[in-house]
Design goal:
With 465 residues, this protein is an all-alpha fold. The chain has a domain at 107-204 and 222-420. The chain contains 14 helices and no strands. The protein has helices spanning 4-54, 71-74, 77-105, 107-132, 137-165, 167-187, 194-210, 212-256, 263-301, 307-317, 323-340, 342-367, 376-423, 432-435. The N and C termini lie far apart (122 Å). Belongs to the autoinducer-2 exporter (AI-2E) (TC 2.A.86) family. Keywords: Cell membrane, Membrane, Transmembrane, Transmembrane helix, Transport.
Length: 465
């Protein structure tokens, strides 16, 4: 037992010596690593110095090379703006192209619905008046629709009846008129011979005889067109009934399809667009009626046959701005020429021109007013574009579409400015009163008063319930 403490002491001394040796080896390894790192850094700096000494410096006359700029900064500002506008215009053009393809695919439905809107704008004031008299909405709608459709049908029947009743008399007068025109050409200073007139008549007859198949196919195509027209009339009648009866809920449903941020602006633009359309239809009907009455009276006094059907045609063609007046007036002059002679045709031309000048310079500005005033260039271009896209129907709806679009765009622009001013921070400081935006009271009319969202188009004429 006496030897155990001595053995433990020697073991502790040996362990202490082993720890000391390990610490010395660790310190020696750290010194060796530091030396290697210093040597590597020294060698790299030496190599770079040698490489720099070996690469010759550029001569003094060599041009300096600037760093390459950012590609976006290298493009001129005007080109960048043009590119940004260009791709947006391409997207807009593609959207319009797709929309036009869709419209052309369902052209009959679109034209029938637009015609229903025009008829509704013409008949809705009658519904409002009947409801003010105490009739229920359904009964007022039914009475107005039945009366309107009956009147339109009677007008069409009257035109067809007059044409069929005077067809034989007209054919005889046309033959007499052609003979008189032939005599006038022979006695005129144009040196037209009878053989030339006979050659023209023979060529016309031969052309009709050789193109019999084309004329027959055109007749069959005309039958197809008549079927489509009847289908469109039925669609327009049903659409008119629902628009007259349930226009408010249809408008509220349309507003739900608009994003919530844009809904207040659209809700305010809708009633104004409807007022513009109603004013256009009413004014056009009044102007067309005046044209038909006065031109019809003029050609009736001149003893032109079928004066009443020609007056009805003048009334119908007046719904095509500019172009319709020219076509209907030319038709009346041609009938007067082939039936009554050159003098009567000239007098009919004077009557047509006088009435149309009064219409263009007095009636339209006074009746239509500033609400639907469209520049004549816009009228011509819109009628031409509508006729190219959808024929006669497109020419009829082109101008009211442009007028409504003008009203909507103008209101949304004003609404956007008013909203921006309302949400802009108020000015501060001593000059706050002088720079604060204040609306001019004189520039705001009664029609610009704010309306509740979801108002029914045309509901301003209806008394509250």
């Amino acid at each position: 037992m006496s030897k155990l403490p001595g053995w433990l002491g020697r073991l502790g001394a040996e362990l202490t010596a082993v720890g000391a040796r390990l610490e010395e080896r660790r310190a020696e390894g750290a010194r060796r690593d530091d030396a290697d790192a210093d040597a590597a850094e020294t060698s790299s700096s030496t190599l770079s110095t040698v490489a720099a000494e070996q690469v010759p410096a550029p001569p003094s006359y060599a041009p300096s090379v600037a760093a390459r700029p950012d590609p976006v900064a290298a493009i001129p500002w005007g080109m960048r703006v043009a590119a940004e506008a260009g791709w947006r215009l391409l997207v807009l053009a593609g959207t319009l192209w797709v929309l036009m393809r869709v419209v052309s695919a369902v052209q009959l439905v679109v034209l029938a619905f637009v015609a229903a809107l025009l008829v509704t704008a013409m008949l809705q004031p009658t519904v409002v008046r009947l409801r003010r008299l105490g009739l229920p909405r359904g009964l007022a709608t039914a009475v107005t629709a039945v009366l309107g459709f009956v009147v339109m049908g009677l007008v069409g029947w009257f035109v067809v009846w007059q044409v069929m009743d005077n067809l034989d008399t007209l054919s005889d007068k046309v033959r007499d008129g052609i003979d008189e025109l032939k005599r006038w050409l022979l006695d005129s200073p144009f040196h037209v011979t009878e053989s030339q007139i006979n050659d023209i008549a023979k060529n016309l007859s031969d052309t009709i005889g050789t193109n019999t198949e084309e004329i027959t196919s055109a007749g069959l195509q005309g039958v197809t067109v008549m079927v489509e027209v009847l289908t469109g009339i039925l669609l327009a009648m049903f659409s008119t009934l629902f628009l007259l009866y349930d226009g408010k809920r249809i408008w509220q449903w349309v507003l739900k399809l608009v994003p919530s941020q844009a809904r207040p602006g659209v809700a305010g633009a809708g009633p104004r667009a409807w007022r513009t359309l109603t004013a256009y239809v009413r004014g056009t009907v009044i102007v067309a009626l005046i044209d038909a009455i006065f031109i019809g009276l003029g050609i009736y006094i001149l003893d032109v046959p079928m004066a009443v059907p020609l007056a009805v045609f003048i009334f119908l063609f007046a719904f095509i701005p500019l172009v319709g007046a020219v076509i209907s007036g030319a038709l009346a002059v041609v009938v007067a020429l082939v039936t009554q002679g050159v003098f009567t045709a000239l007098m009919a031309l004077l009557v047509v021109l006088a009435v149309q000048q009064i219409e263009g310079h007095i009636l339209q500005p006074f009746i239509l007013g500033r609400a639907v005033r469209v520049h004549p260039l816009a009228v011509v271009l819109s009628v031409a574009a509508g006729g190219m896209i959808a024929g006669i129907g497109g020419a009829v709806v082109a101008v009211p579409l442009v007028a409504v679009t003008n009203t909507v765009v103008g209101y949304l622009r004003a609404y956007g400015r008013e909203t921006a001013l309302r949400h802009s921070p108020p000015p501060h400081g001593a000059t706050a009163i002088s720079v604060a935006p204040t609306p001019a009271p004189a520039t705001r009319g009664a029609d610009d008063a704010p309306e509740p969202a979801g108002a029914e188009p045309g509901a301003q004429d209806e008394s509250p319930k």
